[in-house]
Amino acid sequence: MHRLLVALLAALDALLAAAVGLAVVLAPLALLWVFALGDADWSALWPAAAAVWHLGHFVPITVTLPDTYLAATGVDPALATFTLSLAPLAFAVFTGLFAARSGKRAAESGAALTGWLSGSLVFTGLAALVAVSSSAALVTFEVWHAILFPALVFAIPALVGAATGAWRVGDDGPVDRLRSWRDRMPASWAPVPTLILRGLAVVALGLMAVGGIVVAAGLLARGQQIIGLFQASNVDAVGATVLALGQLLYLPTLVLWAVAFAAGPGFAVGVGTAVTPAATQVGAMPAIPALGIIPEATSPWLLMLALLPVAVGALTGWILRSQFPERDGHAPVGPRLTVALSVAVLTGGAGALIAVLSSGAIGPGRLAATGPEPGPLALALGLEVLVGLSILLLSPRPPRSWRGSAEVPSGSLTSERGLDHDEARIRWSGSAPAAPFAWAVEAADDRAHTDAEDNPAGDLAHAAEADPPAGPHADDDVQARIREAWARMEPLPREWGEGSGSDATDGRDPRPVD
């Protein structure tokens, strides 16, 4: 694909990512302006929508309550100005996924750098346009924050997507040189970098699944409290719709809080509060229905949730162990240990990132600190995943002969060319341990006696009926002769055979090729 076309498509992706994010905010706010606020000032609609979009891209915003509101509600004037920094992560997730898709498509088109630069520059320009056009007296923010943070939310996932696409198709550049360097590594170490990244991806997906399960269980267990908070809000249909949509935007944030809760360190909902499986200590909280999911008290049984990250690590270890190359029935310990430690360390880093992205301020006073702490969460996730990885990635595997009776080395006679699968397994299971391939010899011998009636001079009959050579290598010699005879066979034309598939040769005539 031409580079200009790739650049235009990447620019279009950036435009759509910004436009859809803003539209998601503008649509419900416009309904609120029309049906709920009546004669509200329409000039405030765009700054309000832009402020929500900025907050969803990690831009802290400062809110100043007007004097008329303070007088009507009796709020302490000292609390009139506060900061909101807890991001509704649905915006960032949408932008990141859109950016990763754009970068991957550009790489697969052969212009990864062009597509990445084009999309990132266009999104940065749009963020700057939104920042300079949405200033208001009641909602303020740092302009450079409003330009830099959304640009990073788009540029970093786009770069990851471009690198992933270039790794798949090649780029005749740094990615191919990296692949060449990996291929020059020793055979036992060559897959280590790929397995580390693959393990991190599996762990990340597993932890998100754990968080989703915990949130779903909390919604089911605390459904009555959530409904009660909805009813206590005393809003009409439009207000309830806007409130529900706003909470959906914070659903990914709740999932990350649930990951921290399952791991053990938990999270805070204000200064001096803690929500953990061991204990819950919270004071007065905002009457937000989604916060009704937080339990008022915990049970010691909730400590068992810490086994979920361990299970994620064990699943990751099982997946990675199956992809390690083996020599003489076992994989070297050094590469496996390196993969386990690297994945655990990267998981700890991911845990710290989870805490940073899902923490912030949601109001004045004690609500200025919410979310998990980076250090404890990183340590807990890293250790729990390392335990699970060690169980299946570092433990010894059973000998190859124990892994199932159907394993036959490549090149040997399989049950598809002689006995059916069940009969082959029965004969092998009853053979002596000293001759593990006796079932193959016996199968070929039975078939050779049957085929000799039609082709007495055939090489297969000769190979099967001849006296086996004496000595410890008798079985190996017989197998080699059988494989040679099978390799020289050719299938009969369709019109020559009758009842194809009804005999042991599945319609093939054991006629050697002269």
Report on the structure:
- Helices cover 59% and strands 4% of the residues.
- By secondary structure, it is mainly α.
- The chain has a three-stranded antiparallel beta sheet with strand order 2-1-3, with helices on one face. It has a two-stranded antiparallel ribbon with strand order 4-7.
- The radius of gyration is 33 Å and the shape is globular.
Short summary:
With 514 residues, the chain is mainly alpha-helical. It contains 18 helices and seven strands.
Distance between the termini: 53 Å
Uncertain stretches of 5 or more adjacent residues = 401-445, 447-470, 498-514
Q: Residue share in helices?
A: 55-70%
Rg over CA atoms, rounded to whole Å, is 33 Å
Anisotropy-based shape? globular
- The overall strand count is 7
Number of alpha- plus pi-helical segments: 18
Mean pLDDT figure: 79
Structural class estimated from helices and strands: mainly alpha
Order of helices and strands: HHEHEHHEHHHHHHEEEHHEHHHHH
Hey, roughly how much beta strand do the residues contain? Answer: under 5%
